[in-house]
Design brief:
Distance between the termini: 56 Å
Oligomer: single chain
Number of strands: 0
Strand content: under 5%
Helix content: over 70%
Radius of gyration: 22 Å
Order of helices and strands: HH
Number of helices: 2
Number of domains: 2
Length: about 80
């Protein structure tokens, strides 16, 4: 029960932190902004999520490729010795 509550609390905290960091970064990069585009922030967050999952997928695939290459290299060295 406590694990589920902690999981949901961390998810809400993460979404809030991401929203606020994008919100305040608009002021940092463009101090002359008059109105914050609230409709664009969730779209930026979705793009961030897609990018993060895309990077995670390639990291997982890359790790498998490097592992396979290491296995092949070890087999070659084992056969030569």
């Amino acid at each position: 029960m406590a694990g589920a509550i902690l999981n949901i609390a961390l998810a809400i905290w993460g979404i809030t932190f991401l929203f606020l960091s994008i919100y305040f970064s608009i002021y940092i990069f463009d101090p002359n902004v008059i109105e914050i585009p609230f409709q664009k922030i969730p779209i930026m967050m979705i793009g961030f999520g897609f990018g993060a999952s895309f990077v995670a997928m390639f990291a997982q695939l890359g790790g498998g490729i490097y592992t396979k290459a290491a296995d092949v290299g070890a087999d070659l060295i084992g056969n030569l010795i």
